[in-house]
Amino acid sequence: MIILVINCGSSSVKYQLLDMKNDDEYSLLAKGIVEKIGLPEGRITHKPTGKDKFVSDLAIPDHTVGMKLVLDALVDPEHGVLSSFNDIDAVGHRIVQGADFFSESALVNEDVIKKIELCCDFAPLHNPAHLLGIRAMSEVLPSVPQVVTFDTAFHQTMEPYAYLYALPYEYYEKYRVRRYGAHGTSHQYVSGRAARLAGLDPQNCRIITCHIGNGSSVTAVRNGKCVDTSMGFTPLEGMIMGTRCGTIDANIVPYIMKKENLTPDEVTDVMNKKSGFLGLSGITSDARDLKAIADKGNEKAKVVFKKLTMDIAKLVGGYIAEMNGVDMIVFTAGIAENNAFIRTDVCEQFKFLGVKLDEYANEHTDGETIISTPDSSVIVAMIPTDEELVIARDTMHIVTALQ
Fold this sequence. Notes:
The protein is of the alpha/beta class. The chain contains 15 helices and 14 strands. The chain has helices at 63-75, 110-118, 127-140, 160-163, 169-175, 184-198, 252-260, 264-273, 276-281, 287-295, 299-322, 334-338, 340-348, 359-363, 387-402, and strands spanning 2-8, 13-20, 26-35, 42-48, 54-58, 90-95, 106-107, 146-150, 206-212, 216-222, 225-229, 328-332, 369-370, 379-382. The strands form two sheets. It has an eight-stranded mixed beta sheet with strand order 5-4-3-2-1-6-8-7, with helices on both faces. Strands 11-10-9-12-14-13 form a six-stranded mixed beta sheet, sandwiched between helices. A hairpin with a 4-residue loop joins strand 1 (2-8) and strand 2. Helix 10 (287-295) crosses helix 11.
């Protein structure tokens, strides 16, 4: 089954085309990204497997045009990988927020679309863009079934003590104010791969997954199910991130609003887009650039990374206590996969528990890698995430069931 996986942002479309034989037998046919949708100068970067990369700069006024560019690239005589649009059997979409409506992936219909719309308030930067992608694909490929996979679904196994906030209960009943988490597709995939890599029984182990990128979250997984996670009602809660402040004293918000004469929307923008690495360093939100600056002695940049590693360590430590122990700690996503010093600095905080890193393995990771020593009390690993594969698998299962 050939499945097109779509991940829509407000001004971008990331995609992968996979040929799925079964859960474990598949091939990547192509991947790419459409960027700067709605801006004067857009770009599509298309990478077909076994062929040269194709890049084109042009105006991309909306997501429908962006989707058409993706499909045209896939069937192009020179850099395409399909003979026609009819080769696509299904489309899978990543959706950031499904609230407590969805505990698993779903076939797109009007009821599903309405519920995704209701969740836009919880993920205003993401869900509207996902809906644009669904509608655009409906226009371009109207007869192809579409499936949605939710970042929040994996976290629906949390108990009330973990997902409820200590606010008046009526806010939960009336407005669904609770912890939903994010990156669930990544945490689900990585925890499953981790158990397999380490030879653990997925139904009888405790794993902590650290998804550290521009957006970051840590999740406690016991016996294959989410016990707790660091992101909350929105993806703002938790640790320091690229432009997000993470968890702060809630009273800071009205205090700053009064001092700076800010509206609710303006202070939300500050916390989501002007804080984190960018706000604390005053320089950049990009971890690569910040690392180069820190290496040159910039003290603010050094503080950013120290705060990042301590935020991760405090979450990991809390989840060890919550699960009464841990069998495996896993690092994934862009920053954690590409920066050995992050993994080292976090694990240093758990030497008292007998955690020991294999320094050579940690510095020379190549794909899925166990980076702890054989005598370490806890297995530590780096596992590249693959959210698109999870989406493709779920899409395959749901569409196959229709046939």
